[in-house]
Design a protein that fits this description.
Two copies of one chain form a homodimer. With about 350 residues, chain A is α/β, with parallel strands linked by helices. Chain A is built from 14 helices and 13 strands. In chain A, the strands form three sheets. Chain A has a five-stranded mixed beta sheet with strand order 6-5-7-8-9, sandwiched between helices. In chain A, strands 2-1-3-4 form a four-stranded parallel beta sheet. The longest helix of chain A has 15 residues. Chains A and B meet through helix 2, strand 2, helix 3, strand 10 and strand 11 of A and helix 2, strand 2, helix 3, strand 10 and strand 11 of B.
Chain lengths: ~350, ~350
Amino acid sequence: MERNTYDFELEKIKKLIKERGAKRVGLQLPEGLKTVVTDIAAEISKDTGAEVIISGNSCYGACDIDEKLERIVDVLFHFGHSDTFSHSFGKAFLSKKRFVLKENYQKKVFFIELRSGVDVKPVVEKAVAEIKGDTVGLVATVQHVHALKEAKVVLARFGKKAVIGKSRLKYDGQVLGCDFSSAAVPCEEILFIGSGSFHSVGLALYTGKRVIAADPFTMQISIYEAEELRKKRYMAIARALDAKSVGIIVGMKSGQFNLDEVIDLKKKAVEKGLGAYLIAMDEIGEDKLLGFKVDAFVNTACPRLAEDFVHFKKPVLSAKEFEVVLGERSWEDIFKLFSFKNNGCF
Amino acid sequence: MERNTYDFELEKIKKLIKERGAKRVGLQLPEGLKTVVTDIAAEISKDTGAEVIISGNSCYGACDIDEKLERIVDVLFHFGHSDTFSHSFGKAFLSKKRFVLKENYQKKVFFIELRSGVDVKPVVEKAVAEIKGDTVGLVATVQHVHALKEAKVVLARFGKKAVIGKSRLKYDGQVLGCDFSSAAVPCEEILFIGSGSFHSVGLALYTGKRVIAADPFTMQISIYEAEELRKKRYMAIARALDAKSVGIIVGMKSGQFNLDEVIDLKKKAVEKGLGAYLIAMDEIGEDKLLGFKVDAFVNTACPRLAEDFVHFKKPVLSAKEFEVVLGERSWEDIFKLFSFKNNGCF
């Protein structure tokens, strides 16, 4: 990942540090950007005199603020995600009494969105060959969301209509791994501009549509079929149907904690005659779950993580998927409800 | 690990919960005991009515309190480690202004030492054959520390003198992975009663003596030679001698944080012309370090972890070892200073 691929907004950052007289500055970046963070730290330190502390922990989203780091710095710059919390999505989120979010986080944490300067037109042109219908829902991560209109023009040139949906997030057409409200538009397929499979898989699962993913950096086009992906989730649920006991994972990351939901879920499980145990975790890994003597796990942290855990020996379900096991939700309702109005996470 | 191997002090725990009217109770256990924790949680929940939340995170010592869990429970029971903080070792520790330790932790966190009921006599008898000299320093983890006197009697029967040293910890003869003060006794070898290699390796490294490790559960005797182990550390230091840049890891676990030390170390590194970057981390793993463009790492969290990281591609040194690279400490001084009076961690 080259540093000049993204706009790190260093001048803005340095200005802000000076204006605030910040002595200690935290930097938090997604894994792929750790290669450039030392250069950034050196520049900030040299030009502002501030002591820079880099978060070495994983960083999966705006829900994943390094709050221990936040506590010991004057300002924390969180790169690669948009400020989720000042928009309708985030307001619902904050209202859930998530204890970890401190009031002062809003004064201390600054989101640097890392807008990409890459030209999306070539990859959109390439993607056209994969579009079967006439209308696509056009979405992107925050890095490319400013280029969606340009992409729309390219598609029109090829006779394809693109709909950029309103969202609960900061920008129209923007998607998060856990919010696809901007993809809820009348369309036959989804065209996603961005990297990795996290967003594409979620888009396919929760819209039920075919997703064409176009990566403007690698020029790679990937296709995600909803049915195939949903089948894997149904299989995970099926594996958990005979469980006598479950470990309900309480996500302790700043924006993933929701104890009320977890306690409620446990109550329902116990009423159905299951043994149910609450397990508080920061980073979820199979090595940490292996020891627990339960038949299945329910992950109430980032709901999308359940998909990453399909290779685990024991089934790991999302909260909504577990409600199917409990007989509280129909199989069809998992993705329908999850996707738009009532996100599984919130 | 069988539940009846250790004394979980459940009656005491339940009484305390009732007396305090605690509604939410946290349980934190070392990895190996996760197999029994659901049974314990069920019993506590049934007999007290409290909501029990189990920590699913790793737990390496009394320095590693799950403080996010601590924040959301009324009491937290931390199993397997002794209360380090009310003794001289811990007082020095608390005086270092480690930010993570809240004042109320002392009111909320209870240490359940998990005394073992296993008979240590058979394994001590077996160990005698491996003792070359006449006098051993006799040490144990907190699980077996109450059996040291018994072990001493067995050794006397075989004509071996055992010295149980005073320590800075709660009990004479007790060792931690980072404190071997009780092994600073006149003796030819060390006899350690306990499991795993963490304590034995440290004992060999920091006393410079041959360590006979006797595991009363498995009846296995293992030998640790100081020279061999020290050589590995010297090699790690040698690998870091040409480093142009270092990542200095700031341990964010409750009892491992010491920002003053870290900033001081960084200053020294910069004065020597090195690029130096502060990296804050909870759980240290090679996957999280790979991205950083530096030539070596300095680990200021648990100093003993550097030994676990010998297989990492880039050298990872303890703070004291890094001082050798900086020319501030002689190679001979790493273990001498570390071991007794002035522990690297504190």
